[in-house]
Amino acid sequence: MRRKPAPPSGASPRPLRRRRLGAGMLALALIVVVLMGLQWYRGHQVASSCTDNGGHWDAERQRCTFGGPGRIPEPPEPAPQ
């Protein structure tokens, strides 16, 4: 079995570890940003779907309402085909 040549004096494997750590941190940050973006997009789509179907998005309660503020939310009737 061949041995790796010894690094020159004063050199250490630390730059490789730092690169790995940096790449790992970058990957983790990217995953977090993507997950947060998906969560935002999902909320946007739910609110948009509500208003597209004739409802009103209640941001405080995070739900869709149809009709007046005192009514129980009802889904819209399907469109005739």
Which key phrases capture this entry?
mainly alpha, 81 residues, two-stranded antiparallel ribbon, rod-shaped
Describe the structure.
This protein is mainly alpha-helical and 81 residues long. It has a domain at 19-65. It contains one helix and two strands; from the N terminus they run αββ. It has one helix at residues 14-52; strands spanning 56-58, 63-65. It has a two-stranded antiparallel ribbon. Strand 1 (56-58) and strand 2 form a beta hairpin. The chain starts with 13 loop residues before the first helix and ends in a 16-residue tail after the last strand.
Q: CA-to-CA gap between the ends?
A: 76 Å
H/E element order = HEE
Record the strand order, biggest sheet. Answer: 1-2
Please, how many helices?
1
Structural class: mainly alpha
Rg for CA atoms: 27 Å
- The poorly predicted ranges are none
Map the helices and strands.
Layout: H1 14-52, E1 56-58, E2 63-65
Short description:
By secondary structure, the protein is mainly alpha-helical.
